[in-house]
Amino acid sequence: MNDTDIEIENQKQYIEKVKKINKEKNLTYTILTMGCQLNENDSEKISGMIEQMGYTKTNEPKQADLNILNTCCVRENAEERLFGKLGELKNIKEEKGTIIAIGGCMMQEKHITNKIKESYPFVDIIFGTHTLHKLPENLYKAIEQKRKQEDIIDIDGKVYEGLPIKRESNLKASVTIMNGCNNFCSYCIVPYVRGRERSREPRKIIEEVQDLAKKGYKEITLLGQNVNSYLRVEKEKNIKFEEYQGINSFATLLKAINKIEGIERIRFISPHPKDFTDDVIQAICECDKVCKLVHLPLQAGSTKVLKEMNRKYTKEQYLSLVKKMKEKIPNLTLSTDIIVGFPGETEEDFEETLDVVKKVGYEQVYMFIYSRRVGTPGDKMENQIPENIKHQRFERLKQLVENKIYENNQKYIGTTQTILVEGKSKNNDKTLTGRTDSNKVVIFEGNDDLIGKIISLEIVSEHMWYLKGEIKHGRIFTNDAKIS
Ligand code: 5AD
Ligand code: SF4
């Protein structure tokens, strides 16, 4: 056993200890997840550990015995949300004596943990991104010794395998393939709070996906801050890894996962345009299960702003990558992330962003107003953009994006789309909902036994954020490969 395996065994013992203390107490917990899919995946790991320790999930913090917050710090509004939530939890704690645990990215920021200790001293456990696996030990100590636990380390965490996990869906699963980021985009806090890039062993990823396939999962999303540099650091620094099933890069990983029986769809977020090599483009073409929607974060359209952002590509390089991908990948669709109002962004720079949006024709655009993050180079730049200008630009971008999405949606009408049926619609249990390869929501009428199946249907109308479809007879096929 290596160090990390020993540590996990140790934590499993703490799980047993807490379980014993909690026996027959019918305890409940809540978990609030802020931020990205990586955090959601971390929350599934937290829930896995917590449920093994005898807690069941509830949505009502007032009734819970343990309230957990998994924080994000990518943008400022998450901070406001955290402190608002802590105010609410304080009252609940005073009434009920609930345990409060806060984890995630924001806990890696010293000024935040200091503020919590000073102004919110009722918090029981604070844990960071590198100590998530030690939650059983910290919870045990908080209960047994009634001591506050602060467990945050700054060094880059190791990759811990073998923790229990409680997944939100039984159809779609996220699989983290790498942690951390080495890119240091000048606006971004992630490299400081998630540490340096490190990839999971190929064998562990394959085993996890095989296990998910056995359990009936149909769609896998591979997660990482920079997925297409999977195993790059290991190769550059001669860090040993086992080349399992020929996997030594992101492209070979995609090909290996594509072979796993039972899995129908593979998605991945986020790649970095600068690392989008031809072998990855080739793998997307070759692998029938890899969705042809690629999330390709632009961030800004102006080459000058991109340089200031330390993105390492120009507007022209981005556009020529898009052109190459469109030529090579049949049915390619694209989505992106854009930040408006980065320091120094002029009206002309902003128009370059609008220009790229017009030229590329994205399926989906995630838009953000630049938010200063303490400790990043962007925060120290002098030419910050006034709030009102940032907001005006954001609105202009939003208007353009909505027009383009409306335009793009028209192309779907009358086409046949293959969708994975996910379940009943949220607001209408007479209709079902699913997603296209391009991740568009489709609502349609159909029998419940279609849930979990891949079917094809015709798109009859568009409604901005979703499409309506109809099953035309003779066209249903399922992932059991039976054509009706
Ligand atoms: N301000 C605004 N948006 C940001 N993002 C990352 N950092 C910031 C910031 N400081 C956005 C980027 C990234 C997405 C996950 O969040 O667009 O791709
Ligand atoms: Fe942040 Fe850039 Fe790393 Fe993405 S690639 S996590 S934006 S530093």
Strand order of the largest sheet: 2-1-3-4-5-6
Radius of gyration: 23 Å
Low-confidence stretches: 479-484
Give the N-terminus to C-terminus distance in angstroms: 51 Å
- The H-level CATH homologous superfamily of the largest domain, spelled out, is Methylthiotransferase, N-terminal domain
What does the main sheet amount to? 6 strands, parallel
Oligomeric state, counting identical vs distinct chains: single chain
Bound molecule types: 5'-deoxyadenosine, iron/sulfur cluster
Overall geometry? globular
Q: Provide the β-strand percentage band.
A: 15-25%
Q: Would you tell me the structural class of the helices and strands?
A: alpha/beta
- Kindly state the mean pLDDT as a whole number? 93
Strand tally, please? 19
Number of domains: 4
Can you tell me the CATH class of the largest domain?
Answer: Alpha Beta
Could you say what the CATH architecture of the largest domain is? 3-Layer(aba) Sandwich
What's the tally of helices? 15
What's the CATH topology label of the largest domain? Rossmann fold
Helix content, binned percent = 25-40%
Question: How would you characterize the overall build of this protein?
Answer:
The protein is α/β, with parallel strands linked by helices and 484 residues long. The chain folds into 4 domains: 149 residues, Methylthiotransferase, N-terminal domain (Rossmann fold, 3-Layer(aba) Sandwich), CATH 3.40.50.12160; 123 residues, Transcription Regulator spoIIAA; 116 residues, Transcription Regulator spoIIAA (2-Layer Sandwich), CATH 3.30.750.200; 68 residues, OB fold (Dihydrolipoamide Acetyltransferase, E2P). Helices cover 37% and strands 20% of the residues. It contains 15 helices and 19 strands. The strands form 5 sheets. A 6-stranded parallel beta sheet has the order 2-1-3-4-5-6, with helices on both faces. The protein has a 5-stranded mixed barrel with strand order 15-16-17-19-18. Strand 13, helix 13 and strand 14 form a beta-alpha-beta unit. Helix 1 runs parallel beside helix 5, helix 9 packs parallel to helix 10 and helix 13 packs parallel to helix 15. The radius of gyration is 23 Å and the shape is globular. The N and C termini lie far apart (51 Å). The C terminus is likely disordered. 5'-deoxyadenosine binds next to strand 13.
